[in-house]
Design brief:
Pathway: Metabolic intermediate biosynthesis; acetyl-CoA biosynthesis; acetyl-CoA from acetate: step 1/2. The protein has 15 helices and 15 strands. The protein is α+β, with helices and mostly antiparallel strands and 394 residues long. It has 2 domains: 2-148, 2-Layer Sandwich (Nucleotidyltransferase, domain 5); 181-380, ATPase, nucleotide binding domain (Nucleotidyltransferase, domain 5). The longest helix is centred in the last third of the chain and has 25 residues, at 290-314. The mean pLDDT is 95. Bound molecules: adenosine-5'-diphosphate, acetylphosphate (UVW) and magnesium ion.
């Protein structure tokens, strides 16, 4: 028996297969990625199984590419020696809004409700739901579970989640929700297992293509930088993070329409917009242009600035954790953030920092540090698998 965990994005679909022993989720035996699924792309599937990497082009005939891709995945699963029987597919879904505060089995009604949140997360939600629909069609009768990025932040206090807007707008759902919840759930659980201090005031930095911070106390989210949508807060790969809404009013006056603004905010800003070069931190590190340097400095600065705000919300800091592609791999970023937080008593050990390369959980603080600093490779997929197991065996 096994659970398949799925994270369907705009152009790729990540999957991982977790065997079950009883209701216990075991170490994944297969992980993979389908990419090039956007129209005009060159769809291919890469997967890792028994220590080996495999890759194949996905044949696109007259079927929609998603259906074709899932046929290939179904064949791949059937070919595994001793192929485990799938019990459920568990999907990361970015937005559950106020309605869904916990993972659940998806049915037609839930799907329709979730589609109503598409415009709140246009970069993610439509693709998450397309993934669920495609799996429901390809694996008929198999339970499909939705796990929400917003759910971890159900503990946010009202002072944090309310906008200072008229009440009728709050009644329409205009409030801060917070995202990256599956990642924070994983990182928080890992920190609690590694450090007794993690029950105190913990700041988690999920710095990937999307980026946010979450301050937790007693393992529960108290404040986070993302809000109503996944646009607020830190600078991201292609999103600007916090932006004076006056900028949008100005652009509207200049004749910009919704589609153009949406593209600006989700696709053309952030590291890409500032550097004029790339949304990828690795490319920016390699580049020599002043704009690339500014993009990195601004990204780092905003992490430090928002950390100050979140630390104030929880009145101090016991544990700081880095995760996400940048947080797990970028040694320079961690060193600079640590240095700029020295006023909080943060001291990062340069050698430990250099040794943390995202493959394992590592403490990187110096003995003199008043704050523990950890690098935690995040794992949203296993959280989704565990959520599904909990529902299946409840
Ligand atoms: N060795 C590295 N050094 C710096 N940045 C890295 C490194 N490896 C990955 N990254 C960055 O991580 C980001 C992607 O993060 P990731 O969490 O994988 O994204 P996603 O949100 O798509 O899952 C990219 O900006 C990438 O450049
Ligand atoms: C919510 C969000 O920004 O997700 P990602 O980091 O996967 O883009
Ligand atoms: Mg991510």
């Amino acid at each position: 028996m096994a659970i398949l965990s799925v994270n369907a994005g705009s152009s790729s679909l990540k999957f991982a297969l977790y065997p079950l022993i009883g209701s216990e989720v075991q170490t994944q035996i297969l992980s993979g990625l389908m990419e090039g699924l956007e129209s005009g792309g060159a769809p291919q599937m890469r997967w890792h199984y028994q220590g080996q990497e495999h890759c194949c082009a996905l044949v696109v005939d007259d079927q929609p590419v998603f259906a074709q891709a899932l046929c290939s995945l179904r064949e791949l699963l059937a070919q595994l020696p001793d192929a485990p029987t799938l019990q459920a597919v568990s999907h990361r879904v970015v937005h559950g809004a106020d309605k869904y505060r916990a993972s659940l089995f998806v049915n037609d009604e839930v799907l329709a409700q979730l589609a109503a949140f598409n415009s709140l997360a246009p970069l993610h939600q439509p693709h998450n739901l397309e993934g669920i629909r495609a799996f429901r069609a390809a694996f008929v009768g198999l339970p499909q579970v939705a796990c929400f990025d917003t759910a971890f932040h159900a503990s946010l206090p009202e002072v944090d989640y309310r906008f200072a807007l008229p009440q009728e707008l709050y009644a329409q759902g205009l409030r801060r929700y917070g995202f990256h919840g599956l990642s924070y759930q994983y990182v928080m659980g890992t920190l609690l297992a590694h450090s007794t201090r993690a029950k105190g005031r913990t700041l988690m930095a999920h710095l990937g293509n999307g980026a946010s911070l979450c301050a937790a106390r007693d393992g529960k989210s108290c404040a986070t930088t993302m809000g109503f949508s996944a646009l607020d807060g830190l600078i991201m790969g292609t999103r600007p993070g916090a932006l004076d809404p006056g900028v949008l009013l100005y652009l509207l006056e200049q004749g910009w329409d919704h589609a153009r603004l949406q593209k600006l905010l989700y696709k053309q800003s952030g590291l890409l917009g500032l550097s004029g070069l790339s949304a990828d931190m690795r490319r920016l590190r390699e580049a020599s242009s002043p704009q690339a340097k500014l993009a990195i400095e601004a990204f780092t600065y905003r992490v430090v600035r928002e950390t100050g705000a979140l630390v104030a919300c929880v009145q101090g800091l016991d544990v700081l954790a880095f995760s996400g592609g940048i947080g797990e791999h970028d040694v320079t970023l961690r060193a600079q953030v640590g240095q700029q937080l020295s006023w909080l008593g943060v001291v990062i050990d340069p050698e430990r920092n250099a040794r943390a390369t995202g493959s394992e959980v590592v403490a990187i603080h110096a003995p003199s540090s008043q704050v523990e600093v950890w690098v935690v490779p995040t794992d949203e997929a296993v959280v989704a698998a565990r959520e599904a197991a909990t529902l299946l065996f409840a």
